[in-house]
Structure formats: C-alpha cells, structure tokens
Design goal:
- A hairpin with a 5-residue loop joins strand 8 (about 185-195) and strand 9.
- This protein folds into two domains: about 5-145 and about 210-255, 3-Layer(aba) Sandwich (Rossmann fold); about 145-210, N-terminal domain of TfIIb (Single Sheet).
- It is built from seven helices and eleven strands.
- With about 260 residues, it is an alpha/beta fold.
- It has a seven-stranded mixed sheet, with helices on both faces.
Length: about 260
Amino acid sequence: MDFYDTIARYYDAENEDMTDDLELYSRFAEQTGGPILDVGCGTGRVMLHLASEGYPVAGIDTSKAMLERARRKLKNRVDLHDLVTFYEGDALSYALPGKYPLILIPYNGLMHFRSPGEQQTLLCHLASALADDGLLIVDLPNAGEAFATLDDGAVTLERSFIEPESGHFVMQQSVSTLNRTEQLQYVTWIYDEIGANNVVQRTVAPITLRYVFPAELDLLLQVTGWQRVQRFGAYDRSPFEEGCPRLIVVARRRAEQNP
C-alpha cells in the first residue's frame, strides 16, 4: 500500500498546526494570480487555503486515500467548489490541462522523487505546464543541517494527537537512517493508537525520501529549463544561510525556454 494511503487517516490531525508556509504562498499568488498548481496536494491543506482567498487551484497526487479526504473537506466548503480541482495521477507524466502562472511543490514534496532522474523529469514536465512569466516554488528542508546530525537508530516521539474520526489518542513516533552516499533517508513512521479498553493498534509506515542540496537544486533547475530568481531559508523569506531550517527556491523558465 502507498505510504500516504496507509497514514491518510492520521495526516490532517498530525498536521493541523502546519500553517507557517501559507502566507508565503499567498504573497506569491498575489503576484501571479491563478490558476495555481499544487504538486503533491495531499488532503488539500495548501489548496483550500489559496482557494479561500479566491484563487482557482488544481492539485495532483498519487494517493487515492488522501484525495478522498481532500474531496470530503471540499464538500463542506460550498463556496470553493468552483475553484478547486483534484487530479489523481503521477506528476511525472500526467497530462495537465492548461497553463499555470504559479506552480508549487510544497513542504518536502520534491523529496518523494527519489533519484536525480525522476527529479529532472518532474521539473521538465512542470516547465511545460507553466504559463508565460509564471513562477515555480520548491520548499525543502536544508539538507546541510540534516546531514550534520548523527544516526543513532533511536525511536523518537514526534507528537501525540487525537484522531478525530475515532476520538482515539495517537502517539506518532519515527525511526530513521540516512544514506549519505545516495542522499536517501529511510524513515519508518509508527502510529500507536489507543482504543477501547486501552488496546493499542500499531500502524507502521516506511518511506524513502531524497535530500537535495542547494547547488544541486540550482543545477537541476538549469538543466530542465529553469533559473532561480530567489532563495529563502525560512517561510518568513529570510536569507538562505548556514543553520537555516528550509531551502525555499523561487524559479522561472529561462528566457530562451519561453515560447
């Protein structure tokens, strides 16, 4: 089963406080207008925020379960029905209709494409879906900070929350290892859900992610027809520098790539 199909029931509950990036996307949406494309849209966290500000938004994801939850949330927002479109498919090859002045690969999304070849294919495909003078925003963790940490194999308690559908208390834990040669992180998420009579149901969901370094991302953009125009180290648009938590890049197609 797909990782996100496995954890879809927990996703919104564990990420309900994840709002730090939304203002950043709103500012760029003011600059570009819509429609906006959200690559790896999940349950619509970013999409529904932008749609609530009046922008038409399309989202693509491979996870049927995540998209089902997104559509369920949309049912409760009648005012947004005409602004939101979901596509189930692979962003590497999906035939996206129309052109988008703003394309987002939010919160670690590029890490799910686990080889330089896949990342290159994705960026080429998205370049063909960008409107003239449009922008691409890629949000990643600062790989340098992650690679500076030591692997100790410890199980870490990430957070605890109430799963709203069941009302059960859930403890979310993780254990990870880092392959520094291949730039791959192997993570196993562990969800311990405490149900009736204190019976614990454990859900184990492994995933592999690929880190991308700043210069590497610049090169990936260059060979796929993009050029970086801005780079930030946090959602408040502070400079990218040593010790910053994020690698947020804004790019546009190179002039010779525009039709």
